[in-house]
Write a structure and sequence with these properties.
Elements lengths: L1 H7 L1 H9 L2 E5 L2 E10 L5 E12 L5 E3 L3 E5 L17 E2 L15 E4 L11 H20 L23 H5 L3 H4 L6 E5 L3 H11 L5 E5 L6 H4 L15 H9 L6 E4 L16 E4 L4 H14 L3 E11 L2 E11 L4 H5 L21 H18 L9 E7 L4 E7 L4
Parallel strand pairs: 8-9, 8-11, 9-10, 11-12
Antiparallel strand pairs: 1-2, 2-3, 3-4, 3-5, 5-7, 6-7, 12-13, 13-14, 14-15
Helix pairs in contact: 1-2, 2-3, 6-11
Length: 397
């Protein structure tokens, strides 16, 4: 990423050519070796951090006029804190590759004439003049070290830069998913939305499974646009082509998962089960429980009640510890009904998406990304009330 950004952004190239110790991390511009004075007029070295906004894969712009600083409060030659920096104490984590950079505060200083920096070169030069000016005068210190930081953050699973994570300052929380290998079993209405959400989560790997074809009714209950050329193709082919340019580590296969599919799930850390048939669910449950893989099973039961549709959405979490006990509670159907209602069960995209949202939200709670004050394993959402009516707790100890 370093050379690509330097080659395609003249302002960053100028920073490098002038001698700044430039690096990139978590969609941030890092400028190390910035000299400044502490309250005792002793020479200290800090780091400037500025957020990057990716216009495309190769070009970046500024987030705003502010910067972050890893270091103490810069002081002037008179021993007083420099007064025109604004900002205040703050912090957000960078990656392990930049573990030496610990952000302690933000600074806010706009150009007097234009009120806006034209580019990163102008921005960094302005802040360095303010922060480093006294240290340069007193110690002849220089921020132009031409130092190259060889250790860089490893490439993301995403083929586009995840600027929202860094801008929201939740990079440390997103890292909770970095070792996850997720299986999505069944890519029907709810499963397709779960796949869409998980694709945009920085998990290590995603494995999707569905043997069926993509038809018109599929498009009405799945995310994305309908390309007529996709009709009649296998769902695996359609969804793989849809997401392959978004991220790495994704495989989607046109196959059933049953008790004999152990090799397909080897290494999986979490699974979503999104199948209609109870008999299929039974074999999948047996396999996941025997392999110690925690999973969430989703279900939807809707019916027309006179002039309106009502029903429930179900989200059930089976942990690696209590999976067998929960299966014995029969919270999800394990057999097929004689009239095969699953074939005519009403599927509506907003409810499929909502069911998927609840399931992925629950998974992210389990990983510590979202707050989870009540550990529960079974949730029922009542359509007519638009609220979760049942949420059963479980003791994981």
């Amino acid at each position: 990423m370093f050379q690509k950004l330097v080659n395609h952004n003249d302002d960053i190239r100028l920073l490098v050519e002038k001698g700044y110790a430039v690096a990139f991390d978590n969609n941030c511009l890092i400028v190390r070796d910035i000299p400044y004075l502490d309250s005792n007029r002793q020479l200290q070295i800090g780091t400037i951090v500025a957020k990057l906004v990716f216009v495309d894969q190769e070009h970046v712009s500024q987030d705003d006029h502010q910067i972050y600083f890893a270091g103490g409060v810069p002081h002037g030659l008179d021993g007083k804190a420099i007064s025109n920096l604004g900002g205040g104490p703050t912090s957000f984590p960078l990656s392990e590759a930049c573990s030496d950079v610990v952000i302690q505060r933000s600074f806010s200083n706009k150009p007097k004439t234009s009120g806006k920096f034209q580019n990163f070169f102008e921005k960094i030069e302005s802040y360095v003049a303010i922060i480093s000016g006294p240290a340069i005068e007193l110690y002849n210190a220089s921020p132009y070290t031409f130092r190259v930081v060889e250790k860089v953050v490893s490439d993301s699973v995403f083929k586009f830069h995840d600027t929202m994570t860094s801008r929201a300052e939740i990079t440390d929380l997103a890292a909770k998913f970095k070792d996850d290998v997720i299986a999505v079993i069944g890519l029907g209405g709810t499963g397709a939305y779960i796949l869409d959400f998980v694709v945009k989560t920085p998990v290590k790997e995603i494995r999707g499974f569905d043997p069926d074809q993509y038809h018109v009714h599929t498009a009405f209950r799945s995310p994305g646009k309908l390309n007529p050329d996709e009709l009649g193709k296998k769902k695996a082919e359609v969804y793989h082509s849809r997401y392959d340019n978004f991220r790495t580590g994704i495989t989607i296969e046109s196959k059933f998962i049953d008790a004999s599919s152990r090799d397909d799930l080897d290494g999986v850390t979490f699974a979503f089960v999104c199948v209609d048939k109870g008999s299929s669910r039974e074999g999948i449950f047996d396999l996941l429980i025997s392999m110690g893989i925690p999973f969430i099973d989703v279900g939807m039961g809707l019916n027309r009640n006179q002039d309106a549709i009502n029903g429930m959405l179900r989200t059930t979490y089976y942990s690696s510890v209590h999976g067998k006990d929960l299966r014995d509670k029969n919270l999800a159907p394990h057999t097929d009904t004689s009239d095969d209602l699953y074939k005519t069960n009403i599927q509506i995209s907003e409810l499929n998406a909502l069911n998927a949202c609840i399931a992925v939200l629950r998974f992210k709670q389990l990983r510590g990304f979202y707050l989870d004050e009540i550990t529960n394993y079974h949730q029922l959402f009542e359509v007519s009330y638009i609220k979760i009516l049942e949420s059963e707790e479980i003791d994981e100890d």
